[in-house]
Amino acid sequence: MDASVIIPSYRSWDQLQACLDCLAKQTLSSDRFEILVVNNDPSDPVPQEFRLPANARLLKEAKPGSYAARNCGIRDATADLLFFSDSDCLPVPGYLEAGLRIADENPEVGRFGGEVVLVPNGEDWTSAELYDRFLGLEQQKWVERGRAVTANLIVRRRLLEKIGPFNDTVLSGGDMEWNDRAKAAGAPIMFAAEAIVRHPARGNLRDHVTKARRIEGARLRRNASRGWVNYIPPIHKLIPSFKTLIKLLRNPELETRQAFAVWGVQYVIRVVKITETIRLLWLRRPDQRT
Known about the structure:
The protein is of the alpha/beta class. The chain has 10 helices and 8 strands. The protein folds into 2 domains: 3-200, Spore Coat Polysaccharide Biosynthesis Protein SpsA, Chain A (Alpha-Beta Complex); 205-282, no CATH class.
């Protein structure tokens, strides 16, 4: 077995089906890779019309969180090269072959961040989707900083054994925390430009707000050792980022009205992070998954 593809899923059967259909069309022979789908809500029944490829297995993980689900997949995986993606991702036909090729050509590298190409949910880009496209998920920039999102992360098993699995106590940010551990251990990372997955951009403001809350909760947990300093809300975020606005206005792909709309989405997210700090630390409310 050359590759194990690990995909956590949470009440997303339709999206997952599209992802699996893309994996069924890979240029890599199906007998060379396995697909491990981890259902993170065992109480959610599998739809009768759901189609599981012959080289795929459906696992269950009751502990909430995609990182707990990914760790479940790691434990069951048989290959030495693990491909992590998400149920809403759409791998292009050459995704696995490109990932295997760059891994073979760079045996000293233990982790790779594959390209993530954002696509709109409809014919036209919404303001929320444009935010994702121009200010959100930029995989190459993350790799340059020593990180990669799990929408397209390729890892050698030997590195996982050295660094350890994902932190399964968090609902968000576990990919960055794991990559930070790998970076601290001196493990290099490379950008895999040809190992591409397409990813629908977040189509509405509510999706961005939900994600911002999860990320802020993860940040607060990572910084728990800072003590009372952690309780100070990031009130500086109440001031809009004019640097970001200038960057957006200079982008030739954006009309002026679109630039201001994207800037508005960013500002809402900044305010959400402030309110989430207050909600979690001052009001002692639980984390929100959705």
